[in-house]
Design goal:
Layout (H helix, E strand, L loop, with lengths): L1 H21 E9 L10 E4 L5 E3 L5 E7 L3 E5 L6 E4 L5 E5 L4 H4 L2 E4 L2 E4 L7 E5 L1 H4 L17 E4 L9 E4 L11 E4 L2 E3 L10 E7 L2 H4 L10 E6 L7 E13 L9 H14 L17 H5 L4 E13 L3 E13 L6 E14 L4 E14 L6 H5 L13 E2 L3 H5 L5 H6 L3 E18 L3 E20 L3 E4 L4 E4 L7 E24 L2 E24 L28 E22 L3 E12 L8 E12 L11 E15 L12 E3 L3 E3 L4 E3 L2 E3 L10 E14 L4 E13 L2 E6 L2 E6 L2 E17 L3 E11 L1 E6 L7 E3 L2 E3 L7 E4 L2 E4 L3 H5 L14 E3 L14 E4 L5 E11 L2 E11 L2 E4 L47 E3 L2 E13 L2 E3 L2 E3 L1 E15 L10 E2 L2 E2 L1 E2 L7 E10 L1
Parallel strand pairs: 1-7, 13-16, 22-25, 52-60
Antiparallel strand pairs: 1-4, 2-3, 2-5, 5-6, 8-9, 10-15, 11-12, 13-14, 15-16, 17-18, 17-61, 18-19, 19-20, 20-21, 21-23, 23-24, 24-27, 25-26, 27-28, 28-29, 29-30, 30-31, 31-32, 32-37, 33-36, 34-35, 37-38, 38-41, 39-40, 41-42, 41-43, 42-50, 44-45, 45-46, 46-49, 47-48, 50-51, 51-54, 52-53, 54-57, ...
Length: 999
């Protein structure tokens, strides 16, 4: 026993003394490859939280034991692990992280290192859009990319209005979408959770390879593929609720009665005498809204890869309710990517994206804004009330009836697939052949029932909208696209020279067929049943075949193209990019069918020069490019061939028959060409402070020439190439990444882009294009608002006498005082002028990311500044009697009572002219997204190994600072008629809870 005690004592002393001897103070220096100290580098003992940071000279001091592992990390550099030995001083060299500096991006028909390109390509990782409550992934890019304008809609399934670097045409603004190499006009069919990355191409150097489709920019989407040697299963789900914000201020019942009676008195009429029949005080917006609308997402992704086969499968389900009752979108998506390595030099692959959508019956708040509040939704018997005959009854249906009784079934099926083979030969050559198809069918059936409504004035129940017969409608729209790509790539490094060349031939074909029709019930027969089984045109015996009406629309077109691109660099610092494409289109006349597009770009990576050694600048590249891009979009297909339209009819024969005649819609134009955009860009990319600060700046100029304009001149009607539009501006983006200690890191980023849009010419001097309240004319921005400038209100007859006389109609005190713009001493139509610009002076966004241990907080802010909105609701633009905006309570009722809100009148048209009274400030700042997440450490639950797990709460559109009186300051539209607020739909706040797990 004594011997055992002595042995244990000796053993304890040995381990104690050994431990004391093993623990030591170590110090060292962390440098980069150029022997420059790295201040702020993290030095942590692996498996613990014990650690230190390097000082300004890259030095650190730490207590450690022999055989401990030091983990040294620094942003932008490869993390190293170094074992502790008996040495007490260490010099550690960190290598630059090539994954950061040599980021590979997707370009047209291939990939390339970003540092080898002369253009502006912005890469957005898929996780940015994966956990946001947006059915369309592009909606989540709002405020994320300089130069990208995203105007979102709050309606389920609606596509955002997208513009990249301004409006370059009067016919189309949408960019080209390319999903895994497949051309598309939208990406609504893509599940955001299936996206690996999104690249945005903005400059001529990267866009010219797309030729006639490149003018509006290109958005490239790459879906997920499996990684070799891994089996990953990821499941994610989220549930959110929506709430409307920015509710317009409308008159309640009491205010309405006051204003309406005053208006009648001003127009010399007696007060309304039927108020006793209507005792409601209805907020129609509240009646039809669906606060608490649900958004649900569930997604499953399975990825498995080995040396010979990589397969990825994604399944998704989305259910989204609108903020108006009875709106609901449901989508089921599937994504499959499979690549098979047949031999060392040959691989094949297949990709499939499929979606089945149950589309919503969409409504708007327009009728709820206009409907008078003095009516209750139902009478005492539960029958819908009709609005008062004299107060909108003939123009507006009961808003709640319109929402509740909307009947229709709308479905969409889309299948996008591709198959490819890729062969490597002669060491440096790669040939790729790809075939893809896009099949999209949208079909629907609608039913118009007989809905009883109560008419208080006549004390009777009648059918709504004067309808006496039930009816059904049916439509079927089919679009097919087929694409072939044959690409030969040569890639070779010759010492200091890097060279990549691409040759390609591609074809693209499109087919469209639309068929629609309707039929009414047999007069005097049984109503068509309110049952979807009977909602077909051949409904028998209920449908009257004599009333069956059908119509169709169809077209097809094709493009063949030859293309090439060269990427060259010398010593990785002198870069030249060049591309060329020749497109031939079936939509153009034979003489001008083929057109050429090209670009050249150059860049200099200054930071690789010897004189930049030991500089505080880590990376600096200056770049520039010039090119000619194309825009094939037009209002009609085959614009050089005239369509036919109905002409005068004639009577022939016995018995006499009426024979319809058709005439040419416009004359032939045998020399039409596609619009061209001459574009150039100069810019720089900078990284400094040990890659913690990154900054990009670009100046761009895009001049669209040969605009496709439809001209009506006297009796002549034709298409021609004429006119120019110029867009120019600056883009800035910056990011700061840093760490504080071992547990906290943060990132701050921001971007800002300016755009100045000018129409240099339209057709000929004085020629203008009108669309609603907008005018497109020489010297002004496209789609400018046009009308009279309001200087105030006439306060008295003396004020009228002292002002220039007006030829616009009769006016009295309390009416608008329009400005004499041309100074001719009177107010005439010649005093109309540009009164607002729908294009913002600049758009911007900012993001903050905070990470502390397992917690992350992301905050995104975005906004626009300097544009105007046209308020197209509650503005007295119609003689129909609608509800009053709340601001009308401040109307003019005598001298000095108001200098902006005119007197109340329904009979005078003087105040109904398009004017600055309709203009509102479109600038806004929005907290676009806030997400708080907790990331669990890898764990095992009942034998199931979780690689990562994330639980988060997300708030979108949390708050908006705005100046307009409508729901939202965002309003898209066509190229020549946009930023018009019709009062129809809000952008809701969406609060969601979600999680994701990978095992």
């Amino acid at each position: 026993m004594l011997m055992k005690i002595k042995f244990l004592a000796i053993l304890c002393c040995y381990f104690l003394t050994h431990s004391i001897w093993a623990q030591q103070t170590i110090q060292g220096t962390v440098n980069d490859a150029n022997n420059v100290p790295l201040p702020g580098a993290s030095v942590i003992i692996k498996g613990t939280t014990t650690g230190s940071q390097t000082d300004f000279d890259g030095h650190f001091t730490l207590e450690s034991n022999i055989n401990d592992i030091l983990v040294i990390s620094y942003l932008g550099y490869v993390t190293q692990e170094i074992p502790v030995t008996s040495a007490t001083n260490y010099t550690i060299v960190l290598e630059e992280d090539l994954n950061t500096l040599d980021e590979v991006v997707v370009v047209g028909y291939g990939t390339a290192k970003k540092r080898d390109l002369a253009g502006s390509i912005v890469k957005v990782e898929g996780d940015v859009v994966a956990d946001k409550p947006n059915a369309n992934p592009v909606a989540s890019l709002q405020g994320k990319v300089a130069g990208l304008s995203v105007v979102n809609s709050g309606q389920p399934g609606q596509e955002p209005d997208i513009r990249i670097r301004g409006t370059v045409s009067r016919n189309q603004t949408k960019p080209l979408y390319v999903v895994d190499g497949i051309f598309s006009t939208d990406i609504s069919y893509i599940n955001p959770n299936d996206i690996e990355s999104i690249e945005l191409l903005k400059d001529p150097s990267s866009l010219a390879i797309f030729g006639v489709r490149g003018a509006n920019g290109v958005i490239l989407v790459t879906t997920k593929t499996a990684k070799e040697g891994k089996l990953n299963v990821t499941f994610s789900a989220s549930t959110g609720v929506k709430y409307i914000t920015g509710k317009p201020d409308m008159a309640n019942a009491a205010t309405f009665k006051t204003l309406f009676d005053e208006q009648l008195a001003n127009d010399g009429e007696m007060p309304y005498d039927s108020y006793n029949l209507f005792n409601g005080d209805t907020d129609w917006i509240d009646q039809i809204k669906n606060n608490g609308a649900v958004v649900q997402n569930a997604n499953l992704s399975i990825q498995s890869g080995n040396e010979s086969n990589k397969i990825s499968v994604g399944l998704g389900y989305l259910k989204e309710e609108g903020v108006i009752k009875n709106e609901e979108l449901q989508k089921i998506t599937i994504n499959i990517n499979d690549q098979v390595k047949i031999s060392e030099n040959l691989k094949m692959g297949i990709g499939i994206n499929a979606v089945k959508s149950d589309l919503p019956n969409l409504s708007s708040f327009g009728s709820a804004i206009n409907a008078t509040p003095i009516v209750s939704p139902y009478n005492e018997d539960g029958v819908y009330n009709q609005l008062p005959i004299a107060i909108g009854g003939a123009q507006i249906g009961n808003p709640l009836l319109s929402v509740n009784e909307k009947n229709g079934i709308n479905d969409s099926y889309r299948f996008v697939g591709n198959i490819f083979a890729e062969l490597k030969f002669l060491k440096d050559f790669t040939f790729r052949a790809a075939y893809s198809g896009n099949y999209n069918i949208t079909k629907g059936r609608g039913y118009s029932p007989l809905i009883p409504v109560y008419v208080a004035e006549s004390d009777e129940v009648v059918n709504a909208f004067g309808q006496t017969l039930t009816s059904v409608s049916q439509y079927n729209n089919t679009k097919q696209e087929f694409q072939q790509d044959y690409l030969l790539t040569y890639k070779k490094d010759f010492g200091d020279h890097g060279f990549t060349a691409l040759l390609g031939y591609t074809t693209f074909q499109e087919y469209l067929e639309n068929i629609n029709g309707s039929v009414r019930q047999v007069a005097g027969g049984e109503p068509i049943p309110d049952d979807p089984r009977f909602w077909y045109l051949n409904v028998f015996p209920f449908g009257d075949q004599e009333t069956r009406f059908s119509n169709s629309d169809q077209w097809d077109r094709a493009t063949t193209s030859a293309l090439c691109r060269i990427l060259y660099n010398y010593q990785g610092k002198y870069i030249i990019n060049g591309s060329f494409r020749r497109d031939s289109s079936s939509e153009l006349p034979p003489a001008t069918r083929a057109q050429n597009f090209w670009s050249v770009g150059a860049a200099w990576e200054v930071s690789k020069e010897k004189f930049m050694e030991n500089s505080f600048i880590d990376y600096l590249k200056v770049k520039g490019s010039y090119g000619v891009l194309g825009n094939q979009y037009n209002a009609v297909n085959y614009p050089y061939l005239p369509n036919f339209q109905n002409g005068a009819s004639a009577i022939f024969g016995v018995p006499q028959d009426v024979i319809p005649a058709f005439v040419l819609a416009y004359r032939n134009s045998d020399d039409l060409k596609w619009e061209k955009v001459n574009s150039y860009e100069v810019g720089l990319e900078l990284a400094t402070f040990n890659n913690r600060l990154k900054f990009d700046a670009n100046y761009y100029n895009k001049l669209t020439t040969d605009l496709l304009v439809f001209v009506t001149k006297g009796s002549e009607r034709f298409y021609t190439n004429a006119g120019e539009i110029e867009n120019k501006g600056f883009e800035f983006s910056t990011t700061w990444n840093d760490k504080i200690g071992s547990d906290f890191q943060y990132s701050i980023s921001g971007n800002l882009a300016t755009v100045k849009n000018t129409v240099n010419s339209v057709f000929e001097s004085g020629f203008e294009i009108f669309a609603g309240p907008t005018r497109t004319s020489e010297g002004f921005p496209i789609g400018s608002f046009y009308g009279y400038e309001v200087e105030g209100l006439y306060q008295s007859n003396l004020d009228i006498a002292a002002s220039p006389p007006s030829t616009l109609g009769n006016y009295v005190p309390g009416d608008f005082k329009y400005r004499d713009v041309n100074g001719d001493g009177e107010i005439t139509p010649d005093d109309r002028t540009v009164i607002g610009n729908p294009t913002p002076d600049f758009i911007y966004g900012a993001s903050l990311n905070l990470e502390y241990k397992n917690l992350t907080l992301d905050i995104d802010v975005q906004g626009v500044y300097g544009n105007e909105i046209w308020r197209n609701w509650g503005n007295g633009s119609t003689f129909s009697q609608f509800n009053f905006r709340g601001a009308r309570a401040n109307r003019w009722i005598g001298a000095g009572t108001s200098n902006w809100e005119p007197r109340l009148t329904a009979t005078s048209s003087y105040n109904r002219q398009n004017s600055t009274y309709n203009i509102e400030d479109g600038s806004y700042v929005r907290i676009r997204n806030v997400q708080l997440a907790y990331n669990f450490k890898p764990m095992s639950i009942k034998g199931l190994e979780f690689q990562n797990m994330k639980l988060y709460i997300n708030a979108q559109n949390l708050y908006t600072w705005k100046h307009n009186s409508g729901f939202t300051p965002e309003a898209g539209g066509s190229p020549i008629e946009f930023s018009i607020d019709n009062g129809g739909y809000p952008l809701p706040v969406i609060t969601s809870l979600g999680f994701s797990a990978t095992f």
